[in-house]
Design brief:
- The chain is 35% helix and 24% strand.
- It is built from eleven helices and 14 strands.
- The strands form two sheets. An eight-stranded parallel beta sheet has the order 9-8-7-10-11-14-12-13. A six-stranded mixed beta sheet has the order 1-6-5-4-3-2.
- The two termini are 20 Å apart.
- The chain has two domains: 117 residues, 2-Layer Sandwich (ornithine cyclodeaminase, domain 1), CATH 3.30.1780; 159 residues, 3-Layer(aba) Sandwich (Rossmann fold), CATH 3.40.50.720.
Length: 300
């Protein structure tokens, strides 16, 4: 019988510590060539407003596909901008195992990957976190990053001042301008739908670490050329060179995939100012779905 998992059930099953470790394992396998997956196929229904994506992946212990809708026009309507469903199969026999809601999985795996990258790339004594953006991913990143660093101060900026102030009140953060939030911060997250850069490299302190997860389109950017000139780590070379305006338009040199660092193929750069650009890849979703499925079956 095919298992059905709702968003509420998935929320009960997933734990940040296990998910962060699972993302390290999945991305190491990806960079070692153990994962079969194409770059996301994104269909444009209405430019700038409606997109539909297809994301299959096969690993040794998990196989499946995510179908995801990205509707920026939903912002402010009460309907999420990202909605998804995930189908999970047995890779050895091809039997379907589960169908599950993918919205929360997308939210959590994105933040968990950033947390894993932060664990390896940020200064061990990082204490100040800056969040550019105050939506779903800002909340998820705050929760995930607190698993890997003991932040004493959290700063937040949003293009809508009221949103930043509300986030600050809810999460004991400080609302301020983007420049004020970034200057002196040890770890910075950009999680916006910006069309043009909202983070300038001149604001970054030496040795800071940036997790750039927003605006995953070839013609959109969150970081300027100066920020992108720092040590650049990505989730997938192939994917960012097709999907990330930050990488494409800046022509930044890619130092490594994060999975290469997780797998020990390349060393994490010591004391460098680092940028981790993540566009999100299918194996992250399928590995997270497998983690949820195993937990539901009592195996995790």
């Amino acid at each position: 019988m095919v298992m059905c998992l709702s968003e509420e059930r998935i929320g009960d099953l997933l734990r940040w510590d296990r998910l962060i470790t699972a993302m390290e394992t999945a991305l190491a396998g990806f960079s070692l060539g153990w994962v079969l997956q194409p770059v996301r196929n994104m269909l444009t229904i209405e430019e700038g407003n409606r997109y539909f994506g297809i994301m299959p992946a096969v690993a040794e212990d998990a196989m499946g596909a995510k179908l995801v809708s990205f509707y920026p026009g939903n912002a402010g309507t009460g309907v999420p901008t990202h909605l998804a469903m995930i189908l999970l199969f047995r890779p050895d026999t091809g039997e379907p195992l589960a169908v599950m809601d993918g919205r929360l999985i997308t939210e959590m795996r994105t933040a968990a990957v950033s947390a894993a990258a932060t664990r390896w790339l940020a200064a061990p004594d990082a204490r100040v976190l800056a969040l550019l953006g105050s939506g779903v991913q800002a909340r998820a990143h705050l929760a995930a990053l607190m698993q890997v660093r003991d932040f004493e101060e959290v700063r937040v900026w949003s293009r809508t001042t009221e949103h930043a102030q509300r986030f600050a009140e809810q999460h004991k953060a400080k609302a301020m301008s983007a420049e004020a939030a970034v200057r002196g911060a040890d770890v910075i997250v950009t999680a916006t739908n910006a069309l043009q850069p909202i983070l300038k490299g001149v604001w970054l302190k030496p040795g800071a670490h940036v997790n750039a997860v927003g605006s995953p389109r070839a013609d959109r950017r969150e970081l300027d050329d100066s920020a992108m000139a720092n040590t650049l780590i990505v989730d997938s070379r192939e994917a960012v060179l097709q999907e990330s305006g930050d990488v494409i338009l800046s022509q930044a040199k890619i130092h490594a995939e994060i999975g290469e660092i997780f797998a020990g193929i390349k060393e994490a750069p010591a004391s460098a100012t680092t940028v981790f650009k993540s566009v999100g890849i299918a194996i992250e979703d399928i590995a997270t779905a497998k983690l949820a499925y195993d937990a539901a079956c009592g195996r995790a």
